[in-house]
Amino acid sequence: MSEKSEQDVGKSKDWLSRARFSRKHLRISRQRDEHAKRLARNLVRSNDLVAYENLQVRNLLKNHCLAKSIADASWYLFRQWIEYFAGKFGKLAVAVAPHYTSQMCSACGAIVKKSLLTRTHVCTCGCELHRDTNAAINILNLAKARDGQSQSNANGLATSTLLGESLVEQVARMKLESP
Ligand SMILES: [Zn+2]
């Protein structure tokens, strides 16, 4: 076997493993898409209003600490499906500005500074909530305030960013806790 043909074999093996990898990758992304689609459809069907932060996913992905969680949650995909089904079922999907949604107390409006590592919101007013629950209530309130009248009878549900948790857990918990 000449040197050249060994190189060719090496190249084709490399190509083969890459093809296998991309097939596997494609299967996983299809499964994720199906999952996001199913979850979004159920969510929109059973709620008149779905509120979420208007996050710039591209910017967040630049932060390596956050990138994995966001990519795992297929956040962007999920949002696309939410908006699609909202249109289809005549429901409201409202994106609100993400400013202060984590820091603001959902009970009294005070700013309670916390880092991403602080998982609990504890305010001097006595309000004590999981940070994501606090953020989700703020997001829902902002969405309701934004749409005012049309939201008065809406049975809302908010999803906050909830970094580091799976999408299913986030949605399930908010469904239980939302009024
Ligand atoms: Zn408070």
How would you describe this structure to a colleague?
With 179 residues, this protein is mainly α. The chain has one domain (3-177). The chain is 57% helix and 11% strand. It has 6 helices and 5 strands; from the N terminus they run αβαααβββαβα. The strands form 2 sheets. The protein has a 3-stranded parallel beta sheet with strand order 2-1-5, with helices on both faces. Strands 3-4 form a two-stranded antiparallel sheet. A hairpin with a 5-residue loop joins β3 (120-122) and β4. Residues 148-156 and 159-179 have low confidence and may be disordered. The chain binds zinc ion. The site of zinc ion has 7 residues, from loops.
Keywords:
mainly alpha, three-stranded parallel β-sheet, 6 helices, 11% strand, binds zinc ion
Topology:
Blueprint: H1 3-45, E1 49-53, H2 57-62, H3 64-73, H4 75-89, E2 92-96, E3 120-122, E4 128-130, H5 131-147, E5 156-159, H6 167-177
Parallel strand pairs: 1-2, 1-5
Antiparallel strand pairs: 3-4
The site of zinc ion has 7 residues, from loops.
Q: Segments where pLDDT lies below 50 for 5+ residues?
A: 148-156, 159-179
The tally of structural domains comes to 1
How many strand elements? Answer: 5
SS-derived structural category: mainly alpha
Helical content class = 55-70%
Q: Bin the strand percentage.
A: 5-15%
Identify every distinct bound molecule in the structure, by name, code or SMILES.
zinc ion
Largest sheet: 3 strands, parallel
Shape: flat
Q: Averaging pLDDT over every residue, what do you get? A: 74
Terminal Cα span: 73 Å
Radius of gyration: 21 Å
Strand order of the largest sheet: 2-1-5
SSE pattern, N- to C-terminal = HEHHHEEEHEH
